[in-house]
Amino acid sequence: MRMRMTWCSGLAVIGILMFGSTRPAVAQQPTGQVVKLGDGETLTISGFINATWFMNSGFFAFGNGQNAEWATNAQPVTDKTYLDGDVRNTRINFTFAGSPVLGKWSPRGVLEADFFGANTAGPPNGDEQPLLRVRFAYADLTNGRTTVRIGQFWSPLFGEVPVSVTHLAFPLGYGATGMIGWRFPGIFLYHELAPGKPLGIQLQLAALEGSGPAVSPGIGSGEASGMPQLEGRLNFSKRKPNLSWTAYVVGHIDWKDTTAVGVAGNNLTGTGFEAGANVTAGKATVHGNFYTGKAIGHQFAHISQQGNVRGWGMWVQGGYELTPHFGAWAFYGMDDPNEAKSPGLPAAAGAAIFKNQDAAGMLRFRAGRYAVGVEYFNSNTTYNNGKRKASQVSLSVLYTI
Known about the structure:
Layout: E1 5-7, H1 12-19, E2 33-38, E3 41-57, E4 60-62, E5 68-71, E6 81-86, E7 91-97, E8 106-117, E9 131-142, E10 146-154, E11 183-192, E12 200-208, E13 214-216, E14 219-220, H2 221-224, E15 229-239, E16 243-257, E17 267-281, E18 284-294, E19 310-321, E20 326-337, E21 353-367, E22 370-383, E23 386-400
């Protein structure tokens, strides 16, 4: 079979993979290396290489490198700083697209992975051998206006995403300051309600695999309920030469059987609401989101705490392109579980998190597919036995494929 390779122009889908969007890539075309396979089918290879050199003062969860999000309860009293490197954000995406098979309906398949799987071993050598993990695996049938997706993809709660060159797979504030949502197997529907109109409106509906803490071997409380997670979302967008904006609202409901399969008991209902927006005027951008909910820790809400927890979170980020190559960004976010109305929070000292605040600043240089960012990240976390702090200074490079 003869193959011909061409370069596509632009970086639109790479931007979606890196930083997210209020309108998931259901009508976008990938922009990496395109291979023509024959019979009208193409394979697009995209992704990025991302490496970080960082110095921390203190310890973070989910980890201490590209996945740092909030300060852990156990912090060093002295000798707090250490220097390390991380390449786990590095990502590869394979998108297969075929010719129409049912009238105007065409199939598409996507497989994407990064390197946040478990390492082969710890230091001194195992931490330099991170393993692949699946991010997306889904098949689409689309006519351009309507897309039916079956497989693993972001829940509609995963909306606007902070800009960073260090925090990509685990964005700034993810699971820590109101940046919520996760990837689940499910059935997704995307439909453009106002194609070609000045105000774009898109409807998203999703029925997702249930999720929650393990209650039986290999079975979580969400799966044990026998019910899916249900979400609905509306996206709005308007673009002009000097001003463009997007906004969205999302609703969520799920059920959990907290007593496991084979044991009588009541379900715990999880609910959530989220709203977000992005406004770009000339060289300036302001974006963020807000959520409120109950028992949606499996969606990385409530500082990723599981069980019957109530609370809210938010984040906001502003950026300005100083020159065609240099830009500056500032971020602040907070998540605040309501300890008085959260019987699911543990009582043991240091086991429950009552509040977390993250702040970050970044200077970024971009030239085509190449980018470098210098970033400062700080977290202030309140546990039920006191406050903890940790900070990170990072230098990251990003090359998009």
